[in-house]
């Protein structure tokens, strides 16, 4: 569970690829007024039910802020090159697809895998540009069906809007070769500027065999992680809880220092399917 936003400056250049805007998705579903298992929450600030025929570009970008029509994360030595074509919406679901596909990426490097990422942040380095969506304290929730397979790394997480790599809240991380273990982590820097983390590995049923709801309650004095509306981890050291605005990301990484590379047992293409992403304001804020 390393910080996936490390070494950002290394990643700011990429090969030029065509990226066209897609029409906003139509929002026709009735959105739940409360997160799963919660009552008394604040107003719904953000939701995407993925009920259209294309990704809603008013809500999402498809790369990190060092995007050049594609991107990767060298800080973790990941093996995929993220492409807009690997992000699709149909039948009320978002699909992030990882596949074996050779493509030229950063510094003309040949990547053997492509995959998909969405972010409510920016896909440009200029922090004067608005994010798609950011918030400070609240409840973030995603309903998803995860893939399994060695080397696959689905994640739902949050980063600061100033493009810093810390703090980072990992709402959900699962390794494809261990789909019965849910990783819940906070990354931060201590008073001396050293990278630190606090987290838990939760033993669960196989999360790749059915849909589940992943949530986090981020407040000034605590962070609480939920699986299917049930509290699974809690952090209450106010000194290290993020207090700056953050944005959310969903991605399906391939390989890297932590999950390792796919092997002959890994079935590709593999999909991370998302039913919805919703964010509520913190009560009384």
Explain this structure.
- The protein has 285 residues and is mainly β.
- The protein has one domain (44-281): Jelly Rolls (Sandwich).
- It is 0% helix and 42% strand.
- It contains no helices and 16 strands.
- The strands form 2 sheets. Strands 1, 2, 3, 4, 5, 7, 12, 13, 14 and 16 form a 10-stranded mixed β-sheet that branches. Strands 6-15-8-9-10-11 form a 6-stranded antiparallel β-sheet, with no helix packed on it.
- The protein starts with 43 loop residues before the first strand and ends with a strand.
Sequence-ordered SSE layout with sheet pairings:
Elements: E1 44-48, E2 80-82, E3 87-90, E4 93-104, E5 110-115, E6 117-119, E7 138-145, E8 152-160, E9 168-175, E10 178-189, E11 195-203, E12 212-219, E13 222-227, E14 230-235, E15 246-254, E16 270-281
Parallel strand pairs: 2-5
Antiparallel strand pairs: 1-16, 3-4, 4-5, 4-16, 6-15, 7-12, 7-16, 8-9, 8-15, 9-10, 10-11, 12-13, 13-14
Number of helices in the DSSP assignment: 0
- Reading the helices and strands in chain order gives EEEEEEEEEEEEEEEE
Largest sheet: 10 strands, mixed
> In CATH, what is the class?
Mainly Beta
Query: Architecture, CATH level 2?
Result: Sandwich
Classify the helix fraction into a percent range.
Answer: under 10%
Average of per-residue pLDDT values = 90
Strand content: 35-45%
Structural class: mainly beta
**Gap between N and C termini:** 31 Å
Number of domains: 1
Shape: globular
The count of β-strands is 16
Radius of gyration: 17 Å
